[in-house]
Write a structure and sequence with these properties.
7-stranded antiparallel β-sheet; 7 strands; globular
């Protein structure tokens, strides 16, 4: 009888001990889920602050002459005029500008509308290759700013029309596919023909040398 009581007591103590050990155990730690970063790293073609020479980006003026139907005599580098732009290039019509007010007046009398004179700027091409941009953001901003949708060689382009007296000045902007640079073609001071500015933008896309952007000097 004593033996049976002793055995029962030992079993009871063992049961409580096991239960106590189980209750005292700490739960296993769950693996901490890694938080995903909301920051998207975007690479740019050219480091910020780096400027490219127009002669390297657009070495062939003949492409502009063909696209615009008039001879482009030179491309003037105006990179210092815009600190954010990677390059700023002014396309100048070939020929000698009027030397005197009298000569200019003669031209005014001969032509009701002078348009772009020799030595005048046809358009200014600015490239932004150190500011990250993507097609969707670019399209959304174009529409948000109230500009018009257009296209350059099958790619989306943003067209801005700005009042200039009784006429308008035009600016075409697009993302160059090879370099991902945002390129802007803006009408010169005496240009109010949209087709002319679009042709300038088309020529800029054709004439641009991606290698000069990918490997800046």
């Amino acid at each position: 009888m004593k033996t049976q009581l002793l055995a029962a007591s030992l079993m009871l103590v063992s049961t409580f001990a096991c239960k106590g050990e189980l209750e005292g155990e700490e739960p296993a730690e769950k693996p901490v889920a890694k938080k995903k970063s909301n920051v998207t790293k975007l690479t740019t073609s050219v480091p910020y602050g780096k400027h490219l020479a127009c002669e390297d980006v657009f070495p062939d003026t003949a492409i502009f002459t063909e696209a615009m139907g008039d001879e482009i005599g030179s491309i003037v580098d105006k990179g210092k005029s815009n600190s954010e732009a990677t390059f700023v290039c002014s396309l100048i019509r070939a020929g000698e500008p009027p030397e005197s007010p009298k000569e200019l007046k003669t031209l005014e009398d001969k032509y009701a509308k002078l348009g772009v004179l020799p030595g005048d700027e046809y358009c200014m091409i600015s490239g932004y290759c150190s500011l990250a941009n993507d097609e969707d953001t670019f399209k959304a901003k174009c529409e948000k700013d109230g500009n018009s949708r257009s296209s350059i060689e099958g790619s989306f382009a943003c067209l801005r029309a700005t009042e200039k007296g009784v006429e308008y000045s035009y600016t075409y902007k697009f993302i160059e596919p090879d370099t991902k640079c945002t390129v802007e073609a803006m009408a010169g001071p005496s240009v109010n023909d949209e087709a002319m500015v679009k042709n300038c933008a088309i020529a800029a896309r054709k004439a641009m040398v991606p290698a000069s952007v990918a490997n800046p000097k």
